[in-house]
Design goal:
Keywords: DNA-binding, Transcription, Transcription regulation. This protein is mainly alpha-helical. Helix content is 51%, strand content 11%. α1 packs across α3 and α2 packs across α3.
Length: 70
């Protein structure tokens, strides 16, 4: 499996389980990259996918937030 996809699926699993709720802020790209042992580019790709699925929203300069748990 592609690394970005694994990161995206892990975040999605946290959203689906309720561990991350609508409005919750995700850790920074740097923190996620460190946690998963991947590059920030990989994390950005995962976040991009989650944005396309409308699971998270990115607020420039503020962070990434859970959009919905549908």
């Amino acid at each position: 499996m592609l690394l970005w996809r694994q990161v995206a699926e892990d975040i999605l699993a946290e959203i689906d389980s309720g561990a991350l709720r609508p409005g919750d802020k995700l850790p920074s790209e740097s923190d996620l990259a460190s946690s998963y042992g991947v590059s920030r580019i990989t994390v950005r790709r995962a976040i991009k996918e989650l944005r396309q699925e409308k699971k998270v929203r990115v607020v420039q300069g503020r962070g990434t937030y859970v959009e919905t748990n549908d």
